[in-house]
Design goal:
The chain is of the alpha+beta class. The chain is built from 3 helices and 5 strands, in the order βαββββαα. InterPro entries: HicA_sf.
């Protein structure tokens, strides 16, 4: 099983125009210029991100996530 770190997920988000807009505890919220939002939960950059969460981030980047489209900024 492939394991991804929070650092890898953040790098992927930033490479695709997402910027961190807020942090509450260990919940980090990212938004791109089109208003799509991605949430990532981590305490340290070395924390492991599950494959499902990492795949959801990739889907959000490509606009395939219904959740992301529902939370698009108006």
């Amino acid at each position: 099983m492939v394991k991804h770190t929070a650092k890898e997920a953040i790098k992927l988000l930033k490479e695709n125009d997402f910027r961190e807009i807020s942090v509450r505890g260990d919940h980090h919220k990212f938004r791109n210029s089109q208003g799509l939002i991605a949430n990532l939960r981590y305490s340290r950059l070395k924390d492991t991100i599950s494959k499902g969460v990492f795949d959801d981030i990739k889907k959000a980047i490509h606009g395939q996530s219904k959740w992301q489209l529902m939370h698009k900024k108006h």
